[in-house]
Amino acid sequence: MIKIPEEINLENYTLILPSVSVGNVGQLCIDLLISTLNLQKIGSLWNSVFLPICGLDPYDKNSSSLCTTADFYLGTYYKLILLQLRSPCVSNSNDFLNELAQFIQEKKIKKAVILTSSYGYEHVNRSDSNVSYLTSDDSLLNDEKLLESLLWKKHMKYIATESVDPYYISGGGFASGLFIHFKSMQIPSTVLFRYCSEGDNVSDALILFQGLNKWLNLIKDSTNNSIKYPPSWEFFFGNPPTSDMY
């Protein structure tokens, strides 16, 4: 079930969402987008495919509002609606995919962008650190100059992978499945992802943010100094060591 105010007009908006994946890079990038663009929560999604969670507002220490498993954030200036997911799929995701596709069509959302990541050892060219992509969006497919300027690399499935899915992204969660579903529903969609390893993946999220920003032109200066980290990142790896240790 998706719950957002009916009066909000999302026609020609872009939906951006993560797939829970290796290193959580897509989710980290969504956090950066929400904080940097100062997007406002407008609703939530409930679906049994996700583990239910509830917590404090990750983006404002002084807020009394709560965050849930799947929350929507709106940026009217940028014509963006973001869906942040905070728990993984624990069952068949078909119901979620159908619900999301129906929501996009009913609200006349222009296109979808899926942010994810893949295991670094699956990379065909391990010296290449650029963002990789899949797209069914004609505005990209028909503009070779734009694609060249973005410096993205078209996804090439690792030949040793057993999956018959030509769009398969190892460690990428439901990203390729959602891409295929959107494509079958004629919803223009693009998957952007980073090859990475588990650990501190902030740098991967920053590169993904910058790759997305080159395309959508969300902020003029996309250097790391202009990107705002959410306060929930303050103790990413736990509290600092107590002074009693020394």
Give a summary of the structure in a few sentences.
This protein is of the alpha/beta class. The protein is built from six helices and eleven strands. It has helices spanning about 25-35, 95-105, 140, 145-150, 175-185, 200-215; strands spanning about 1-5, 15-20, 40-45, 55, 65-70, 70-75, 80-85, 110-120, 130-135, 155, 190-195.
Describe this structure in words.
Keywords: Chaperone, Proteasome. Pfam families: PAC2. Forms a heterodimer with PSMG1. The chain is built from 6 helices and 11 strands. It has 246 residues and is an alpha/beta fold. The chain has a single domain, classed as PAC-like subunit (Rossmann fold, 3-Layer(aba) Sandwich), CATH 3.40.50.10900. The strands form 2 sheets. The protein has a 9-stranded mixed beta sheet with strand order 1-3-6-7-2-8-11-9-10, sandwiched between helices. It has a two-stranded antiparallel sheet with strand order 4-5. Helix 1 crosses helix 6 (202-216). The N and C termini lie far apart (52 Å). The model has no long low-confidence stretch (mean pLDDT 90).
Rounded to the nearest angstrom, the distance between the terminal CA atoms is: 52 Å
Strand content: 15-25%
Poorly predicted regions are none
**Helical amount among residues, as a percent range?**
25-40%
Helical segment count: 6
Overall, the morphology is globular
Task: Write the H/E string, N to C.
Answer: EEHEEEEEHEEHHEHEH
Q: How many domains would you count in the coordinates?
A: 1
Strand order across the largest sheet: 1-3-6-7-2-8-11-9-10
Largest sheet: 9 strands, mixed
What class would the helix/strand composition place it in? alpha/beta
CATH C-level class is Alpha Beta
Taking all Cα atoms into account, the compactness measure Rg is 18 Å
CATH homology group: PAC-like subunit
Number of strands: 11
Organism: Eufriesea mexicana
Protein name: Proteasome assembly chaperone 2
GO biological process, one term: proteasome assembly
Function: Chaperone protein which promotes assembly of the 20S proteasome as part of a heterodimer with PSMG1.
